[in-house]
Amino acid sequence: MSPAIIWDVDGTLVDTAEQHYRAWVKLATEIGQPFTRADFAATFGMRNPEVIRQLFYPTADDRLCRDVGERKEEMYVASVREHGTALLPGAGKLLADFAAAGWPQAVGSSAPAGNLHVLLGLTGVRPYFGAVVSGEDVTRGKPDPEVFLTAAAKLGVDPGRCVVFEDAVAGVEAAKAGGMKCVAVTFVKHHKPDKLRAAGADLVVGSLEDVSLMDVFRLVRDV
């Protein structure tokens, strides 16, 4: 059985972590709340409502989470548009190779849809994806598997056929909770290899340049 590929975006296809960090710091300053590097590391990859409730407003309702989250994303998108972004090493080749092999691909990200539109547009990779699932398309964030299961459903494939590419512990946990295989990439160094393996990653690599089609095929060969 050939794989179906589901990609996380930030930290996996691109690295705009510093732009996210600066946006959260700026937002926290505006609302008079602390925000540290440790806070960023502990919440990276989560949906905004979970971050806001965990770090700033534990009892925030959906409207407050939306308003605060939108403000943060305005700052983030402005930074990305100003500074630009690029695919991480090996990402472009893998996307093209998977497409040439006829393997369906989707995005499964905690990011808002607007962010994904900007990132996929700036890098020119949107045509590779048969589906794009954002944090706005689900009600539960990673490590819940909803975002990946939704992506699989939109591709029309069985979750057991899917291989998720991730860089975060919560994302690996989400993939495994959804019954999927997972390749974890440590290039951006948000999480240590042993933590990703402990979360259940089937393959941990330093860079997407270290991944081949055969590596991925082997993960679902016996499914």
Q: Count the domains.
A: 2
Oligomer: single chain
Largest sheet: 6 strands, parallel
Order of helices and strands: EHHHHHEHEHEHEHEH
| CATH homologous superfamily title of the largest domain | HAD superfamily/HAD-like
Cα gyration radius (Å): 17 Å
User: Which runs of at least 5 residues are low in confidence (pLDDT < 50)?
Assistant: none
**Cα-to-Cα separation, first versus last residue:** 7 Å
Mean pLDDT: 94
Characterize this entry briefly.
The chain is α/β, with parallel strands linked by helices. It has 10 helices and 6 strands; from the N terminus they run E-H-H-H-H-H-E-H-E-H-E-H-E-H-E-H.
Would you write up a description of this structure?
There is one protein chain. The model has no long low-confidence stretch (mean pLDDT 94). The chain contains ten helices and six strands. A six-stranded parallel sheet has the order 3-2-1-4-5-6. It is globular and about 50 Å long. Helices cover 48% and strands 11% of the residues. Helix 1 crosses helix 4, helix 3 crosses helix 4 (62-83) and helix 4 packs parallel to helix 6. By secondary structure, the chain is an alpha/beta fold.
